[in-house]
Amino acid sequence: MKKITKAFQTHPYLFQAIFSGIVAGILTLIFFRDITGGKFLFIGDEFLMFSQKELFPLSFMRNPHDLGVPNGIPIIVNFYERLYYYILHSLPISFIAVQPWYYFAKLFVSLFIPFIGFVKLGRIYKQKNLWVLFLISLWYSFNTYTLINWNGGFFITLLILYILAPLALYYYHQAVFGKTS
After folding, report:
1. Taken in order 154, 155, 157, 160, is the CA torsion positive or negative?
2. Which residue stretches of 57-129 are H helix?
3. Three-state DSSP state, 106
4. Phi and psi dihedrals of 70, rounded to 5?
């Protein structure tokens, strides 16, 4: 246990990246354990793109379907989803593999980036114990937001806002109150 604590103290970001990858991988395997062959996970994501052909009409300001209804707000709200699906559908990956990678990436980022923000906030509030910051980060990552996210209810845009909140708070504090040492 002392070796793990020492490794965590010397390389906290590497430890958190490995931990985040393992937890995200295990949860992704749990979520997709029964998904085989022609099945896919039924998520409440109305912006799930099955192919690159579905992405093309969504890149116009006016929707070519529905008599040219303005398409501006959906472009802004789900820009990152469309970018994600565009990149993955450009690669030679089957659609069956696109969804697990989506969940793995969301879980990994949800676990890793808030830890960086909480470590920086810990420096401001003189919290030297990285295990406490690790537990705070873990609690922040696995709360009701994550449960709703697992249900497919949130976009990547909201995920980015949520995971960057601790870093944003740190940089806001730095901008308003200056250096802390």
Report:
1. positive
2. 72-77, 79-90, 95-124
3. helix
4. -60, 140
Helices (H), 32-70: 52-55
Residue found under tokens 């469309």: 82
User: Kind and range of the H or E element at 4?
Assistant: helix 2-10
Query: How far, in Å, CA of 31 to CA of 143, rounded?
Result: 17
List the helix and strand counts (H, then E) for the chain: 10, 0
Would the CA dihedral through 152, 53, 35, 24 be positive or negative?
negative
What is the residue whose two structure tokens read 């030297």? 128
Cβ contact 116:13 at 8 Å: yes
Q: Is 75 in contact with 62 (CB distance < 8 Å)? A: no
pTM of the model: 0.75
* Each residue's pLDDT tens digit, 95-133: 777 778 878 888 888 889 999 999 999 988 888 788 888
In the block, which residue shows the tokens 């537990």?
A: 135
- Angle formed by the axes of helices 12-31 and 95-124, to 10°? 150
Q: List the Cα angle 55/61/66 in 5-degree steps.
A: 75
pLDDT tens sequence across 74-91: 666 777 777 777 787 778
